[in-house]
Amino acid sequence: MSEMNRKEMILMEDDITRLTVHELVDKLNSNELTSEEITKAYIDRINEKEKDVNAFVTLTTDTALEKAKEMDKKRYSNNAEFSGNTKMRENLVGIPIGIKDNMCTTGVKTTCSSKMLENFVSPYNATVVDKVNDSGLISLGKLNMDEFAMGSSTEHSAMKITRNPWDLNKVPGGSSGGSAAAVASDMVPWALGSDTGGSIRQPASLCGVVGLKPTYGLVSRYGLVAFASSLDQIGPITKDVKDCAMLMNVIAGYDEKDSTSIDMPKVDYVSALKNDVKGLKIGVPKEFFGEGINEEVKDQLQKAIEIYKELGAEVEECSLNISEYALATYYIVSCAEASSNLGRFDGIRYGHRTENFSDLNELFVNSRTEGFGDEVKRRIILGTYVLSSGYYDAYYKKAQKVRTFVKKEFDKCFAKYDVLLTPTSPIPAFDIGSKSDNPLEMYLADICTVSINIANLCAISIPAGVTSDNMPVGMQLIGNRFTEATLLNTAYTFEQKTNFRDKYKPSFRREEK
Amino acid sequence: MSVSKDELLHIAKLANLKLNDNEIDKYLKNLEDILNYAEVIENAPIDDCTETIGANDNANAFRSDIVSEFDNIDGIFEIAPSTERNMFKIPKVIQ
Asked: How many domains does chain B have?
């Protein structure tokens, strides 16, 4: 293509960053854009929007542009080294990405948004980071989160407070709030998040983007800083469902370094998108629409149910009375596991070491006391309490039984339905500071999402509509274990019909209060 | 469910954390709220449920007994707060 033609076809930078990844890939394949142009457009967008949104803990934009040039060469040259490299999934070479700051990256800090890991540079990459690099993706930086992924608003970050691009006075959700806000504000085309009780889906819902929590064992946790090991999963946060399927194709798969990852045949999630839900059985558990669920959230979900009916799905109300049991169980089990996992931070091998100690015990205690923030300490204490002698049977052991009960109740539903439909979050994005003094109220933000982790299922959040105040409302679709393909198709079919992204976009408004 | 100050301090000691007076008051209140909420599990119909141990149904993951070397030993020592030769340095344990 001549330089003249190229220039005529070049899009404005804001148009470039508005595109989905599959649209960017099309433009790379047709030579309309280069990776350098795409990456530069994103860097300019970050320079414009990051001061308002605060999504990044660490930017790697300085090295990203060099990498983009390298990727352009790889993409276009007939270089023998590249054509022989079967690990390169050619179609994604040169596409940027953002990574939540709890996934280990060599050469770039992994802080977990904690003072404890403020200067931590991992000696190895997380498996998902290797997979992202091997696919030729370019990281633009590490994204903010609640400290150690504990929170639902990203206000518990020791680094900064991330703001919701739809209203800068509101939270982006959490704990993957930086990832969701960066995708929603077009500062990255897509991002990786992690989800222990809703940390991908709830921020995706509050920021009007797509977020998938894969089934436990589908994506390797190697190199993900552990919060609650039996619940944590890494997953995509994207602009649309097709991008979500594409990123799942990159990150899913068995990893011998994670003994809980499952060795099973690889699925192509993109080819699962059929844009057809005729005959699909969707259950709507009525308990998820009861007390505490915002009326506007209910209205949007009701509209979504009608759309699925129009599309030919068989939608039926059902009963699943588990939410409160699951939430209590979640906080017992996740804090218990966290108190054990976070025992490793001792100021000896890595992480913050106090300057104020006279013996080994003081070194442990003072390093931990100085390094951990308020919410992390609260959860370590709660977790230590429920595991301590005298309370173990009353809380932890009982919670592990409730976990089995929750699984069985879901099994009953999945005997009748392919997919369950619920709100992702009981409320739209709330004001910054409005819940930070009341931990229990903050925990209730997870009421619709935690049961999926408790039962090791998969679930996706996609935008269903907006409130009268123009804030996004997310719909959660829940699938049985390893039914991501069905889930993605169910979400895709709704998205193709409703075209949320064409109708709504973040306003970056900041009303004076 | 109420937690006493002594119990909280005992738990903090087990967790290797030091709490100041403000934190003690705050965490006592928070713990009480959360544990009261957690009492809903008392009503869960779990008589015929066994405990969930681990997230997957698979009992164990076996690997072949082959040594694989970690190739970035230097990287491990670079991030340690204090090292000497190829060791992590800690305060004297035996006086």
From this structure: 1
Alpha-carbon distance of A392 to B27, in angstroms, equals: 20
Q: Would you write out chain A's pLDDT as a tens digit for each of its 513 residues?
A: 445 455 445 578 779 999 999 999 999 988 899 999 999 999 999 999 999 999 999 999 999 999 999 999 988 764 444 444 443 445 899 999 999 999 999 999 999 999 999 999 999 999 999 999 999 999 999 999 999 999 999 999 999 999 999 999 999 999 999 999 999 999 999 999 999 999 999 999 999 999 999 999 999 999 999 999 999 999 999 999 999 999 999 999 999 999 999 999 999 999 999 999 999 999 999 999 998 999 999 999 999 999 999 999 999 999 999 999 999 999 999 999 999 999 999 999 999 999 999 999 999 999 999 999 999 999 999 999 999 988 999 999 999 999 999 999 999 999 999 999 999 999 999 999 999 888 988 999 999 999 999 999 999 999 999 999 999 999 999 999 999 999 999 999 999 999 999 999 999 999 765
What's the CA gap between A371 and A180, in Å, rounded? 26
Q: Flag whether residue B41 sits within 8 Å of chain A, measured between CB atoms.
A: yes
Name residues 60-79 of chain B within 8 A of A (Cβ): 61, 63, 70, 72, 75-76, 78-79
Alpha-carbon distance of A441 to A423, in angstroms, equals 18
Peptide bond into A175 cis (omega under 30): yes
A30/A126 Cα distance (integer angstroms) = 33
Whether ipTM tops 0.90, in short, is: yes
Q: How many CA atoms lie within 13 A of B22 on its CB side?
A: 1
Which residues span the domain enclosing B37? Answer: 5-43
Q: What is the CATH number of the domain that holds A149?
A: 3.90.1300.10
Residues of B in contact with A403 (CB under 8 A): 51-52
The three-state secondary structure class of A405 is helix
Nearest to B56 among A122, A216, A402 (CB): A216
- For residue B40, the distance in angstroms to the closest alpha carbon of chain A comes to 6
Which amino acid belongs to residue A363? L
Tell me, yes or no, whether A350 lies in a domain: no
Alpha helix ranges (H) inside A200-294: 201-207, 241-251
User: Per the domain annotation, does B82 fall within a domain?
Assistant: no
Domain contains B20 = yes
The answer to whether position B52 is within a domain reads no
The minimum CA-CA distance between B64 and chain A, rounded to whole Å, is 11
Task: Give me the residue from B41, B52, B76 closest to A404, CB to CB.
Answer: B52
Instruction: Give me the domain span that covers residue A251.
Output: 3-326+399-501
A100 annotated active-site: yes
**Which one of A67, A100, A115, A170 is the catalytic residue?**
A100
- Residue B17 and residue A368: Cβ atoms within 8 Å? yes
- Residue A88 counted as domain residue: yes
CATH number at residue B38: 1.10.20
Answer yes or no: is B35 within a domain.
Answer: yes
Chain B contact for A230 (CB, 8 A cutoff): yes
Instruction: Choose from A119, A356, A370, A382 for mutation: most chain B CBs within 10 A.
Output: A382
- b/e per residue A100-123 (b: at least 16 CB within 10 A): bbbbbbbebbbbbbbbbbbebbbb
User: Which of A117, A216, A258, A385 to mutate: most B Cβ within 10 Å?
Assistant: A385
